[in-house]
Design brief:
This protein has 164 residues and is α/β, with parallel strands linked by helices. The protein is built from six helices and four strands. The chain has one domain: Metalloproteases ("zincins"), catalytic domain (Collagenase (Catalytic Domain), 3-Layer(aba) Sandwich), CATH 3.40.390. It is 46% helix and 14% strand. Strands 1-2-4-3 form a four-stranded mixed beta sheet, sandwiched between helices. Helix 1 runs parallel beside helix 5 and helix 4 packs across helix 5. It starts with a strand and ends in a 15-residue tail after the last helix.
Length: 164
């Protein structure tokens, strides 16, 4: 599911974002996986970043994996089968700050649409367990990002440094 704040609905091509996410999920062998992508403002992302990461600043993208639930969360085996199946298929949430993305697109001389695709892919890969904390992890994640983005003409966008 894609949710875009009203202020940005005319600026965000939701079908294009859905296409890149569907392509990614197909490529990693999880075509039935589900997630929520939210495009919102800097203030909302700053609040989430402060509350969940201890960083009181806006950022481009945040990922909240469903599998990183609290220790007191119910086990899937303890839930009704239908709910357990639905939750097992849910990857989590990706939150993108549209104003931040527009500034970043200008900085990297990309289109906003290309930057949104990159960040959607980057965020979903985090939901799938990919990271870039070490050079080897970064190389693997960047390679996969490039592969996923290539059909959209954006393979070159992945070669940059991200904050962990």
């Amino acid at each position: 599911m894609i949710q875009v704040d009203e202020a940005f609905t005319e600026l965000v091509d939701q079908e294009n974002l859905r296409a890149v996410i569907d392509h990614l999920l197909d490529q990693v062998g999880q075509p039935t996986a589900e997630l929520t992508l939210v495009v919102t403002d800097d203030a909302a992302v700053q609040t989430l970043n402060r509350d969940y990461r201890g960083v009181d600043a806006a950022t481009d993208v945040l990922s909240f994996a469903a599998q990183e639930e609290a220790d007191d969360a119910p086990e899937l085996a303890d839930l009704p089968p239908e709910l357990a199946a639905e939750l097992a298929n849910y990857l989590g949430d990706v939150i993108i700050a549209y104003p931040y993305v527009t500034r970043q697109a200008i900085h990297y001389q990309n289109s906003v649409a290309a930057e949104l695709r990159l960040l959607a892919v980057h965020g979903v890969l985090h939901l799938l367990g990919y990271d870039h904390a070490t050079p080897d992890e970064e190389a693997a994640m960047w390679t996969l990002q490039s592969t996923i983005l290539a059909p959209f003409g954006d393979a070159h966008l992945t070669h940059r440094t991200y904050d962990a």
